[in-house]
User: What shape does this take?
Amino acid sequence: MPISEPRSPGWPPAVTQPPSALARRFGGRSDVFSAMDRAKAEARRHHGRHLIDLSLGCTDQPPPPQVTAAMARKLGQRPSAAYCLHAATRPLRVSVAAWIRRRFGVAADPDTQVLLLVGSQEGTAHFPLAVLEPGDHALLLDPGYPSHLGGLQLASARIQRLPLGPEDGWRPPFASLGHGERESLRLMVFGFPHNPTATVGEQDWLDEAMAMARRHDILIAHDNPYVDLALDGEAPCLLRSPGWRERGIEFFSFSKSWCMGGFRIAFAVGAAPLIQALKQVKGWIDFNQSLAIQAGAMVALDEWEDWPARLRSLYRRRRDHMAQALEAAGWPMAPRPMALYLWDRLPRAAGAMDSLSFCLRLVRDTGVALTPGGGFGAAGQRHVRMALVAEEPRLTEAAERLGVWLKTL
Assistant: This one.
């Protein structure tokens, strides 16, 4: 099956459903995060500045100062306030291609194989619209990042979930897919290092997926914003798997590695037809980031390639510190090999509570906000994710509050 042409401007069709119908269609995981958002807002009113929000993977660290300085210098120039079309992004695409060669030893054409994104979440959510027709079969991991599911829902795909489990080290069981299931798939969407489980993954996992994709004519979208934040081992990369130039696309971000989440800038590298298809969808939906933000991103890639290494040291200390603090509080939580998160089962004291009920009660009673694992899929239901986005004294305080609260359950 050849790669399909980008959809015509008539797609997607006009929305005629009332909001209630849309809420039913896109409910589930999104409802979990909406409920937590409301609970945190209430907790802020109740606990005030004493709220400890460890629910979002948004670092508390600033970008390199030279990055923001470059943005500031460019911000006063008139072109930075204008719409930015694709051609104007070429300097950043050239920097991306040079970074890809240095980082992975892979050559990428900045004109046909690189695309600027307004955050990697935007790319993963829009990509299915670029390559799928309604009813096409697509596979995603469970648990998995919500925008992977959301993009497939927006494209009206038939979704197949591949459950992950701790007994297999959260490795995707691609071998469990039958021949008919593989033949029906048009697209696979996943990402390692993995959010939410903080599993780094192995290169042979991606190689296995790509080999299956080549045999059964499947496209692969690999979300890789944590590529430089593996605390143990080397992160896998789809660009190192033979076949990506024909049927693969990989999404990278400045949000995690360079602490630029609020600036919403990222990029995709992939097969030229896939980049072109996504570029056309983006052309209908948005423009590109300001030239000022792009200037900062170029400084990050060209001059601060070692910045993620500094973050790894910070997150390793926080991980080890929080694991010890939680054990002292009566909730042993195993350290994870990827920076930014801890991920583990609910404590025994939670009893029959699901992850959302647990997290809602926790933030209401203690002012400590965590992320319910059920928001990432059914396989995460009895788990919770904790983002290490506070200094060690605040992490200690969060663990102490947790310990006191667990004794009351």
